[in-house]
């Protein structure tokens, strides 16, 4: 197993094997075109992330749809993809060296008096065998030769074993589409096997659909990043799958943002106790309701005795995190890919980090050998926390600049001094109170960006981000472009631990380069 920036894959003979999560497609949508390249090759796609991780151009081979999990593969050459894709498209026909063989597991809430079936259609056949059953659910295995996933779904429906979650084929609605490709065997390759989601073998969990939703969300991140093998790393484990909460992994501890108006009930806490148990980490549940009205409200529930201070990593940088210092423990994971991008571009550059909070962007720039790093925030407490993070990573804060100051005041002073920067990071709050009055992003951002633009060297970059809910990505880009004339838009791949490709993002980010 190889992983680059926590993105997991295994390399075969001209083939990249991945453990595909739910929500991301392995289909080749350019069927019939010369190179059979996946339509998912857009900048925000699964295949784009894989290409970045492997450093290779990839071509989709098989036909696992977005909802099916498990073993899938991509070819690394157009010659190989034509040969393999033809086999998949022609009913997975025999290739030189043997057939394409697959082993599936699926769940159903239907019951059968038989424990096995054999289905043969033209040159394909599938052997169905029941693995286990409970009073309400059954787990089945299907071993197939020359049978597509779509054909398998149809066969399961005809056998009255409708797959749980597969509503297109008569299955009962469920938070997870319960079809998993356990093993795929290509000619001249070793079999590639992936584990099924946890509730496939623990059928008793299926009665708690909300728990299955949580496990399904965590399962997606594990298949993508293999995070259980990186005990110090940080990752978003549950994002928009539920409107009630977000779940973050910070090294050895879990942090749950609780958005539901009512506090967790006993069965909620039991559910999260189970989740903390399977991840083998303590958990803090932090209430987020009415945070604008009462920002100092730190109502929380604690499971498995979490520490008040602990360390976690992101992109090989260590952070000190605290559970009594606000609604977040001190690191916003939605900026992870932006920080990674900054790492790759800021060596020997002058970097200004506005609204710097605990200085994660500043620490990223300093670790990547930026020649100047300036951090600006109204809170002396958070800047001091940032300095502690610098020391934690063997960086002397005295070699960098920290200003406890209103951002707008700092920018005006920098303009008077004609100070210039190569990178400026601007991640303002949507709303905040300050001595000079109330800051509202829709009112104040334009002037801030205009001043940033004047401070930026030619060829320099301005990274602007916001979680302001009244703007979508297109509207946010328009706001930034109006304030920044003669600019070039730069794309940064969003992290797949957050929204899936094509979804509207809660965090809006824009990188523009001054021409």
Features:
Rossmann fold; Pseudouridine synthase; 515 residues; 3 domains; disordered N terminus; alpha+beta; 11-stranded mixed beta sheet
- Count of domains: 3
Query: CATH fold name of the largest domain, please?
Result: Pseudouridine synthase
The tally of helices reads 11
Radius of gyration, CA atoms, in whole angstroms? 25 Å
Mean pLDDT: 89
Q: Outline the biggest β-sheet.
A: 11 strands, mixed
CATH class of the largest domain: Alpha Beta
First and last CA, distance: 42 Å
SSE-based structural type:
alpha+beta
Structural shape: globular
Count the beta strands: 27
Q: Your description of this structure?
A:
- The chain has helices spanning 46-54, 78-89, 149-158, 209-225, 266-279, 336-343, 360-367, 380-392, 407-416, 441-455, 473-483; strands at 2-4, 7-11, 15-20, 59-60, 69-75, 101-108, 116-121, 124-133, 138-145, 179-185, 192-193, 234-238, 245-250, 253-258, 283-287, 300-303, 309-314, 317-322, 350-354, 372-377, 401-404, 421-426, 431-434, 437-440, 456-466, 487-490, 508-514.
- 25% of the residues lie in helices and 30% in strands.
- It is globular, with a radius of gyration of 25 Å.
- It is built from 11 helices and 27 strands.
- Helix 6 runs parallel beside helix 7 and helix 10 crosses helix 11.
- It has 3 domains: 2-196, Pseudouridine synthase, CATH 3.30.2350.10; 212-313, RNA methyltransferase domain (HRMD) like (Transcription Regulator spoIIAA, 2-Layer Sandwich), CATH 3.30.750; 332-514, Rossmann fold (3-Layer(aba) Sandwich).
- The strands form 5 sheets. Strands 1, 2, 3, 4, 5, 6, 7, 8, 9, 10 and 11 form an 11-stranded mixed beta sheet that branches.
- With 515 residues, it is α+β, with helices and mostly antiparallel strands.
